[in-house]
Specification:
two-stranded antiparallel sheet, about 290 residues, eight-stranded parallel beta barrel, TIM Barrel
Length: about 290
Amino acid sequence: MSAGNSIKYCMDWGMKNRISRIINPETGRCVMLAVDHGYFQGPTTGLRNLGESVNPLLPYADAIMITGGALKNWINPAMNKPVVLRVSGGNSMELPDELSDEVITTNIEDAIRINASAITCSVYIGSPHQRQTIENLAKIVNEGNKYGIPVLAVTAVGRRLSQEGGKDAKDIVRNERYLGLASRICVEMGAHMVKTYYCDEFEKVVAACGNVPVVIAGGKKIDELDALKMAHNAVSAGARGVDMGRNVFQSDCPIGMIKATRAIVHDNAPVESAYDVYVMEKARSGKQ
């Protein structure tokens, strides 16, 4: 099923065309490479030299999620991958209890000048700044609709919310009830795509989004095999792909990891076969 044909709500030609650049029309899925972490984490591990880390991975990504500043500093303009442009910010790891305090930092004209295929911001449901971040999303949806630029809404979990209730709070929060709630709110605000976390009963989260495509966030770095299992489980439950960052660029073999992820997302490869892709690429590159 093509990406364009599966989107049944009203959308103009330009919007459909941009989404079809992000979501492969032949498979109806996508492997997005998320490298926008510096907007609040600074020079995080794996992205200290963003260009050195990211440029070798671009041939294997369907799209790249990035800030305008990073794009201009480290990515060659001749690069032909669609850009999902991060347009929110204002927070940092120095104030972890205020991670949800985001504003819109990039206007739609800048997104057009950059030739972005989509724009994105985070929504923090249940956080002290919930209303503010929902308003951010609504603003960029309205602006995007004017120019046929789709919006990817990211359901983010602030640290205060994650730690509420003790050490197991992340497991409690990131369930199908919470993620379904957060994702559905994004859809109701007009988001054209949703990025959220994987959880048990993920098919319920996908169903909550109706015809809006859902991709999963990779989250913190985990073991390569576990990350591939998560990707496989997500697409099996109806996700249209993944938007992985740290589980790719912090891997001991980033190219092997993104190739393995592609095998799952686009080729329906079983986890074991995809893991073999990673292992063989790691051996070929001489990494132990």
